[in-house]
What we know:
single chain; mainly alpha; 2 strands; disordered C terminus
Amino acid sequence: MREEEIEKLRGVVRDCVSKHLYSSAIFFADKVAAFTSDPADIYMQAQALFLGRHFRRAFHLLNASHVVLRDLRFRYLAAKCLEELKEWDQCLQMLGDAKVDEHGNVSDIKDSNVMYLDKDAQDHEINISAAICFLRGRAYEALENRAQARQWYIAAVKADPLCYEALEHLIENHMLTCNEESSLLSSLQFCHEDGWLSSFYTCLIKKQDKENVVEAKFNDLEKENASSTPSDSPFTGTLKNNTDLLACKAEYYHQCGEYQKCFELTSLLLEKDPFHLKCTLVHLAAAMELGQSNELYIMACNLVKDYPQKPLSWFAVGCYYYCIRKYDQSRRYFSKATSLEGTFLSSWIGQGNAYAALEEGDQAMLAYRTAARLFPGCHLPTLYIGMEYMRTHSFKLAEQFFLQAKTICSSDPLVYNELGVVSYHMKEYKKAVRWFEKTLASIPTSMNATWEPTIVNLAHAYRKLKMYREAIKYYEKALTLSTKSLSTYAGLAYTYHLQGNYNSAITNYHKALWIKTDDQFCTEMLTLALAEESHCDPDSIPGLLS
């Protein structure tokens, strides 16, 4: 057969693959390989078999080839076949011996003579070494060696920053702490034309900066193409309405406690792309925080219908039952989600929270500890373990776990708030004041009602230290954020009472009782303040106020 006829058949194979006619591609690729015996055509045949899901046959074909151990393409595709067959040890063996250190630096032992015989290689293809490192990471993760998996994923991203899948696994599986993620990105070598990608990656990782800094990063990225594209270019679009970028922004709003802004943004995004699963997860979390049970019910029904085998669907069902306070049903569906995918962090935390709501502390701890083991870069499981210890009045243990959470993520104000609460319970009021002030200083956005309890706690701590002016200042600041808090009015009234300002105390006791008419503390203290104001039984005050 003439060369032009062979080349025509190769074109037919490529066209069949592009049209997803895999049986046709396999048929013609087999004939081309028989005519030529060229390694490139054998590889094309194996590729067609792989796409047609004939993994065992594709592996046999590659393994029988005399170049399988010398051509990285053959070796990589053979390992991909073993990946699909879930034969992870053989997959690692096929990829060859190599070592990687904790910083992702690779040292090959026996691969110095390998080739990469790709006639159709493109200038901007992803480095084959990065793909091999990523596949090693996948194999180690499947074998539950997450430490090795983490190192190989880092190696993959370092080998080629375009290997997004490796970065995605590091981020989504919380394999790195906040500082480690930032350090990894700063070490990557991007080409000049890939500057936008570097900016995009910084939006994907955990964000520790203040709101104005993060918003500036989003704005710069949204304007990226407009500022760098020549005026005569046909490509004049920007990333402003890109779904992935908007999902990152929504995730940041949720992280900052801006749940309403997050919910509005995810609602708009899901109208545009209703099957964007990352956005769906953030939308569910925001709806949970806002108590949107109807929205959760609709989302859960649609997800179970469209994706019955995905853990996200059953997580949504669990969220709905949690929102309507049916914690036992909620726990069951969170458990079903984790059984479908053991590395779904949200379901582990949801399961722990449901057990905690049922006051089943041991089961809650088991869920949180599993999450902490599986996701070492996420501080939330450790934080929840501390909260559970605090609920059972094991304050020293709680403090240890809060400090551990702080080492994982030093930018989360919630960690500092919990450290302040546990210090308050241990009667270490000066330390509590320091932690609460650190909380307020760490809030990335402008102050909102989410942080009103922290301000009230700070006021309580100042009151305990008999620093009444500071206490009153923070109680009044809390009232600017929420005027419906019983504890704020009661604390403010009590502080005025301790100062001897009975008129202000009486006014605020009345405001507290307007919110809850049968509050025993405010009723008793109001009676005492009224009696003291009219100079009745003045000797009783020092013994009663403490």
